[in-house]
Every structure is written in C-alpha cells, then in structure tokens.
Amino acid sequence: MKLTVSAATLGFVALTAATSNQYINYTTVQGYFEQDLESTDPSTYDYTSHNFGLIDRSYDSDKPASKNLTQWERFHAELQALNDNSPKHVSYKLFFLGRHGEGYHNAAESYFGTPAWNCYYSLLTGNGTTTWFDADLTTEGINQAEIAHRYWLAQYKTQHIHFPDAYYSSPMTRALKTANITFSNLPLAGAGAATFLPEVKEGFREGMSMHTCDERRSKSYIESLFPTWTFEKGFTEEDELWTGVTVEPSGAQDERSRAALDDIFGEKKVTKRPDGVCVPHKKNDLVISVTAHSGEISSILRVIGHQTFKLSTGAVIPVLIRAEEIAEEEPTTTIAWTQSAYCAAPPATSTASGCVCQGSATPITSGYPVGGTTVATPTPF
C-alpha cells in the first residue's frame, strides 16, 4: 500500500492510501521471543538479560547436528527454513526494532512534567541551556547506545548471532546517532555480514505532533553527519511532513509505518549513495535493523498485530514478521490530521486531563503555537 501526503489549507494535512490490486498483510509469528508473551512486563523487561529475549526451545528445523549450535544459530536456520518452505507470496523477516537513546527532549519532558511539556514547552525549540528541536542525544542517551553496541558484540562472540542484513533509520538526529554508535566498529566483515550502510527512511520517524522535536533537519545536514549513508527514493532536502500546526493521528502513522514495511518487503532495485555507488536491496535479506522512536515502534507493532510493548530509551525488541501478499484491492482511505490544544505561556498547573492555562485563558486550538522561541530563563536538567 503506497501513501501520498498532501498539504491543503492551513491546519490540515491528509494521508491517502492509494488503491492497488494487491496489498501485504503483516502478522507477528509468536512463540520465539519473551516479548511476545503476555506475562512479560515491558516496564521492567531488560532486553540484555538473555539473548535479546530469544526463548530457549526446539525448532522444527532442528537437525541432529543442531545440538552443537547456539540458540541464535538454530533460530537463523529456522528463519531460513520458514522462508524456504513457504509459498512465493509469503515471506518472513526478523526485525530488531531499536528505540533511540535518551534525547534532550526526553530530559526536558521529565523536568517539566508531561502535561506542561505537551501544553507549552514542547512547542519551543529549547531553553537557555540546550535545544530539543530535532533533539540530540544526552550523555545518558550515548551511554544507552553504547550498551546496545556492547551487547551486540557479546551476542556475536558468545552466541554467534546473525548481524542484520540491512539497516534502516529514522531521519531524526537522535535515531541516526544511536544507530551509528550501536553498529559502527562491530566485526561485521569478519563475520561475513553486510556492511553497516543504513538507509534513512521518513516512514520510520516519530509520530508528528506540534512538538519541535518531531521536525527533522535537512538532507544536507544528515549527509554532513554520515556522508556514505543512503536515502530512500524521494527523500526531500527539507522536511515536508512536519507542520508545527497539526498532529498525525495514530491511524495515519500506522499507514505510514505500513508503507515503510511494504518498501522493505517488496521488490526494490538499488539506492545510489552520495558517492555514486549503487547499493542493491536484496529481497532475501532476512534480518533487519530499524532504529526509530517509541511511538513509531508502537505503530509498527500495531501494524503487525503484536501486543503493546513500550520501550524505554535505548531498548530493543526483536519481532518475527510474516508477510503475505493478498491479491485483493484495498479501498482508498484518507485520514485527516488534527490540532491539539496548547497554552501561549507556561501552564498554571500540570494535569493529565489536558492543558490548564494561566488565569482564565482558554487553551488555543488554531494557528502556529509559540513560534519556535526558547525559554527565556535557563533551566537545569
């Protein structure tokens, strides 16, 4: 299913799913990871506690010699067998969905409190100390990405885990840098693994609200950080999705996430790197890394029918996805973006029920919010 984004008059953006004579239906293959189990508590779960959550169990693909293999080696053989034994219109891929490390916007929300953050502070670009527009990683965020890096290395050394065959990242700075810290300098060549050469995809960015942390920087800026990384076809120089006025509903985000999955599972040609080298996208890539955001990962999980599993900053969840091409036409759907209420000054109180502005001021629901200014007085966090 392909999506187009159309910006209409002030305060309205629509996502439209174009009609096609076939679509891909996604489901989660359960029984392989602890994160699939209802008994697993996302709020306390540590993905580094045991093999990214891979359950110790036997597989239909096990052979007598499998007893000499690690659980991850046996799982990869199982993944290959699932694809080898499935009809042509069905395929399986293992996705490692990683949330970026803590960003300055996360620290700001913790400092101001979520209601005050949503009603006012998130509409600013920062305070007198730092910036949370397209937020960078905090020191803790860098540490969380380094934990992921060390864990991947340990899993390779002790479990012979199969490194990703392809890498994708949200275009937001915090995700780009998390992916780079996590996967750079791993022994990929020695393992016979694919080169770490991520593709930057709009579809994997955070759900877009009026928050300035949801606005991305230019393509040129991303290229200045990582000049050899690739971009999906049609990636624009400037951000044409974030408006600062409207909010992307969860249904619209899910369609965006679905389109990104379609792009990965579908037949693709090549991506041209900035240096002119063309990189082929292989349909038989079985292990996929996606570095994204809490809301975006939640959206992907909804699309594939996985149970709700909220990730803390820097956490990773592996999911085995079954994709089946359905030879039916889906109707065109249009989902309108909405507007949220906000205050023109710091709110009087912070409540979970909504914005409570100072004095008798009514929360604003139209026009550009605060205008990208910064907090006048530096705030420590």
TrEMBL record:
Transmembrane intervals: none
Signal peptide residue numbers: 1-18
Family matches, as InterPro entries: His_Pase_superF_clade-1 (IPR013078), His_PPase_superfam (IPR029033), PGM_Phosphatase (IPR050275)
Signal recorded as keyword: yes
Pfam family membership, one: His_Phos_1
Sorted UniProt keywords: Signal
Gene3D superfamilies in the record: Phosphoglycerate mutase-like
This protein's name: Histidine phosphatase superfamily
